[in-house]
Amino acid sequence: MTVVSHEAHPLFAEPYFRANIAGTITPEQIRFIQGLKMVNNMENLISENLYIFEEPELKSIGDAVQEILDIYARDVLCIPQRLYVTQSWSLTNPPGVGMHGHSHSNSILSGSLYYCELPQPPAGMVFTRHVTYQQIDLAPEADRRNVYNSPITRIIPKQNDVILFSSRLTHMVEQNMTDKPRHAIAFNTFVKGKLGKYRDVSELQL
User: Fold this and answer.
1) How far is CA 199 from CA 75, 77, 196, 202, 204, in A?
2) How far, rounded to the nearest angstrom, does the alpha carbon of residue 93 sit from its chain's CA centroid?
3) Quick check: helix, strand or coil at residue 87?
4) pLDDT of 198 over the 90 cut
5) How confident is the model over 43-57, as pLDDT tens digits?
């Protein structure tokens, strides 16, 4: 054997961020969200209003999400610009229903807020590593998947969790295998502030 030693190191890491806002959401707010008018969304249901954090009744929830975005910008991205919520909407997956694979355009980070009790067992969010056509599929052995080779990552949410992830990632929601609806709020974000540099003729004020 000629190999004396070997190591693997990550070149880049793709984070997701989980925060919990237990105690922020009131029973009245839960009733308000679940009373919003819903429309069909391919498989599941989506609120007709796609800016629900602008409703006065949900201001405290929007403020809590903004606090989380501020933490992410400061401590994870380490950027001077400010992240803010653009669109926000309610989702319901009835029994037997999941959500199709998708990503989010015109957004930097997207997020999910699990504002009420989740039916058990909870359906997970599944993220796909690849975002483009794969001509050769080199699938790792199922029991040897790790952060370097796994084609998917599954996340199990908990009540009051806010989960942030890159909007470019393809993700889906597993089928709701319970006899109760699964509720969540989703949102997109963008940045405010100055990008680039004046002398580099790359300055952009957002």
Assistant:
1) 28, 24, 9, 8, 12
2) 16
3) strand
4) yes
5) 999 999 999 999 999
Peptide bond into 121 cis (omega under 30): yes
Output the six-digit token pair for 3: 């190999």
Task: Name, in order, each residue with C-beta under 8 angstroms of 103's C-beta and a sequence gap of 6 or more.
Answer: 131, 167, 168, 169, 170, 171
- In sequence order, the 6+-apart residues with CB closer than 8 A to the CB of 66 are 84, 85
Between CA 189 and CA 109 the distance in angstroms is 5
Q: How far is CA 24 from CA 30, 122, 169, 184, in A?
A: 11, 22, 28, 15
Overall size of the chain counted in residues: 206
Q: Which residue has the tokens 């008018």?
A: 37
107/85 Cα distance (integer angstroms): 9
In the DSSP assignment, the letter for residue 79 is -
Q: Map out the domains of the chain with their CATH numbers.
A: 16-122+157-193 (2.60.120.620)
- Token digits of residue 104: 């989010």
What residues contact 163, with CB distance under 8 A and at least 6 apart? Answer: 16, 17, 18, 111, 112, 114, 125, 155, 157
Q: Which two tokens stand for residue 130?
A: 């690849």
Q: By C-alpha distance, which of 113, 142, 147 is closest to 127? A: 147
Spatial separation of the C-alpha atoms in residues 198 and 73, rounded to whole Å: 23
Residue 91, SS3? strand
What spatial distance separates the first Cα and last Cα of the chain, rounded to whole Å?
Answer: 58
Helical spans, DSSP H, in the chain: 27-34, 59-72
- The pTM assigned to this predicted structure is 0.93
